[in-house]
Amino acid sequence: MGQPEELFVDMVCLTDPLVQKICSLYEKISKLENLNPSNDVDTLFTQLVHTCIPPHPIDVTKLCTQIQEIRSKLISLCGQAEGLLEKHHSTILGTFQNPLDHLNLFPYYPNYLKLGALEYDLLRPHYPTAPRRLAFVGSGPLPLTSIVLATHHLRSTVFHNYDVDASANAMAAKLVEPHPDLSGRMFFHTRDIMDVPGEDLREYDVVFLAALVGMEIEEKMQVIEHLAKNMSPGVILMVRSAHGARAFLYPVVEPRHLRGFEVLSVYHPTDEVINSVVVARKVVHSSIDHIHQGFGGPLMHCSKCAEIQSFNPIGLIDELAVEEHLC
């Protein structure tokens, strides 16, 4: 009975000009010998980003199975390429006596300045004083978010950066070691966040979750569940997500995925900043027993989350408008 409808969805999916363009780029990217920075790699990923940036009403959850699989593979390829690009530029920066004086050599540094300012502006209404300790999960070899926040916005906060890659942490630490201020406020831990115990996580006032921590939604939700069980009540969680066609570049985190948290605001940029940002607070009255129910548990506190997901679906969601929507 459902076959004609599924066939219709497949036809729409495969004939959409945006999907066709993205699939064409995926085919070319998947045939590259490697994803190390090069003219071919840079050109193809630049084309992909420019294809995905314009606002588009596409809902990636409704794509046919074939395109869902391509999207999943493409996100993985983007993650690999991003990691290699960061390692390449971290290596270059590490050759300078004062690496942080040369961050503009990284081509996307202006984007991180904008993203850092955006996330600080989103955080400030919900945490008006400077956090004492902040954790960034998935910091990588070029921890620009932590560096931008520490140097421009949170000048007294201590940053603890977590990454599973020891070499990435070593490269990142080398960048901040010569800096007289950040060398005493920025620390790097080679640990899977799933292995970080509650006594450590409860020390943080704010936790950032990078977009590529948990490439599949099931893995992402396991990380969020671990944080919900172990963060202190009232602590802010900043989660990076993606919206519209940008969901071909990064995983999507919906408010309903944040069980154990109260969603405070959602922001979907429309400029060259790719990531959406979800701001949430660990609920005070959550129950560990409920959280242990897993993905089916009820603990996502948001009075009007369905409206957040559908509100202004192809453009900018203003923070204040979303907060008003939540109240």
TrEMBL record:
It is an enzyme of class 2 (transferase). It catalyses: 3 S-adenosyl-L-methionine = nicotianamine + 3 S-methyl-5'-thioadenosine + 3 H(+). Keywords: S-adenosyl-L-methionine, Transferase. The keyword Oxidoreductase does not apply. It holds the Pfam family NAS. InterPro entries: Nicotian_synth (IPR004298), SAM-dependent_MTases_sf (IPR029063). Its EC number is 2.5.1.43. Transmembrane segments: none annotated. Synthesizes nicotianamine, a polyamine which serves as a sensor for the physiological iron status within the plant, and/or might be involved in the transport of iron. Belongs to the nicotianamine synthase (NAS)-like family. This is Nicotianamine synthase. It comes from Rehmannia glutinosa (Chinese foxglove).
